[in-house]
Specification:
The protein is of the alpha+beta class. The chain is built from 4 helices and 5 strands. The termini are far apart.
Length: 120
């Protein structure tokens, strides 16, 4: 998907969810996304600078029984609500018409997510 189109659609989605003005300043693809398309998003929402992560399904799935983005969002929400140290889930959509595939948005947390590096 064209990054400019993705940016435009994502801004419109976040504005629809919050009712607040939103400007995406930067979108950077994240490494380690073999099973999902992952981006670091820097934006201004209602005047506040924020960093989020976008996780979007790819056109094909590596795992037939993989969690959906809605499942992942729900699990993150339960963990977050019970004070487990996870990124705060923000929004999700199962509708592929929004960004071309189901997706979720969560707060960005500094660290690494490449499996072999995490294990080391």
């Amino acid at each position: 998907m064209n990054p400019d189109y993705l940016r435009s659609q994502l801004q419109a989605f976040i504005h629809q969810q919050t009712g607040e003005p939103v400007t995406i300043e930067e979108m950077l693809p994240l490494a380690g996304g073999a099973s999902r398309d992952s981006w670091q998003i820097t934006l201004t929402l209602a005047g506040d600078a924020q960093r989020l992560v976008l996780r979007r399904d790819l056109a094909s799935s590596m795992y037939a029984d993989a969690l959906t983005r809605a499942d992942e969002f729900a699990l993150l929400q339960v963990a977050y609500d019970h004070a487990v140290r996870v990124p705060r889930p923000r929004w999700h959509s199962p509708d592929p018409a929004v960004l071309g595939a189901p997706f979720l948005l969560m707060d960005y947390v500094d660290g690494i997510s490449i499996g072999r590096q995490v294990v080391q």
